[in-house]
Write a structure and sequence with these properties.
Blueprint lengths: L2 H6 L3 E3 L6 E3 L21 H15 L5 E5 L14 E4 L5 H11 L4 E7 H7 L1 H9 L5 E6 L29 H4 L5 H6 L4 E8 L3 H19 L4 E7 L3 H4 L3 H15 L3 E5 L7
Parallel strand pairs: 3-4, 3-5, 5-6, 6-8, 7-8
Antiparallel strand pairs: 1-2, 7-9
Helix pairs in contact: 2-8, 4-5
């Protein structure tokens, strides 16, 4: 075992029938419960949950965090995060988060939303919360489709991409173009941080965690609205293997939704 792994070793787990122990070097974040995720195997939601929980632990804010569970595949995430959670009506997570933050200004308040919830029925909610500069942090999962309700066309569905309500693929003359919510919100003066990451490979998982950390810090430092859009797969509705769906993100989704930071209140500041 290297010095690095020795430093993070937490405890020894007995090896069944072997009489020897194994060193645990990777464990569940304190801010996640031990309830198993209900997502499809290969889905990126679980990775996004872990990143958020790790950061809540790293900032030491578990006891003052309030999360908003939206309608969509993540509707039951109040059972996964070991923090105060509120279940919100479809698209209304930013409004609920606004209320929570104004009543408890010292709390860290986040919403966790999918593209149908945030960019469709909740588009007015997210726009006005950002325009008001509400000091909340939004984690926006973009898998370019309605995942929970049957694979319908979403505001973020790519041109030509098939959905149950667009069996021949998205046609702009009928349903418009994919909406770039994160770039749109970055134009508003109330927004402190806006970025887009992805979960399709390990390097981008690490980079996305860095964006999430910046967004959370913006709220904790008293700045305005912050959002991190995260490209994630939906291998079940895309009719792909998990591996193929992650490769499709790299090959197709990133071309439509470029990764990077669009607005950063800390830009140019010394580390």
């Amino acid at each position: 075992m290297t010095d690095a792994t020795a430093d993070v070793a937490a405890k020894t787990i007995p090896t069944p029938g072997a009489g020897e122990g194994q060193t645990l070097i990777f464990d569940r974040p304190r801010s996640l419960t031990d309830k198993a995720f209900t997502y499809c195997p290969g889905c990126g939601h679980g990775v996004a949950h872990r990143l958020l929980a790790e950061l809540i632990d790293e900032f030491g804010i578990q006891d003052r965090t309030i999360g908003m569970a939206s309608v969509g595949c993540s509707v039951f995430n109040y059972e996964n995060f070991d923090v105060d959670m509120l279940s919100c009506a479809h698209g209304r997570a930013p409004a609920s988060a606004t209320g929570a933050k104004r009543v408890y200004p010292d709390a860290f308040v986040f919403t966790y939303q999918g593209d149908g919830d945030l960019a469709s029925i909740g588009s007015a909610e997210i726009l006005h919360a950002a325009n008001r500069g509400e000091r909340i942090t939004v984690i926006f999962i973009n898998n370019a489709i309605y995942g929970m309700t049957g694979g319908q066309l979403a505001p973020t569905t790519l041109v030509g991409m098939k959905a149950t309500t667009a069996p021949k693929g998205r046609q702009p003359e009928l349903t418009g173009y994919p909406i770039h919510i994160t770039e749109l919100l970055a134009q508003l003066p109330g927004v402190a941080f806006s970025a887009r990451g992805s979960l399709h490979d390990l390097a981008n998982v690490h980079k996305t965690k860095g964006y999430m950390k910046k967004a959370m810090k913006a709220q904790l430092d008293g700045h305005g609205f912050s959002i991190v859009e995260i490209l994630s797969n939906c291998n079940s509705n895309w009719k792909m293997t998990p591996q193929d769906s992650n490769q499709w993100i790299a090959a197709e989704m990133v071309k439509e939704f470029p990764l990077g930071v669009f607005k950063d209140v800390y830009a140019g500041a010394k580390a």
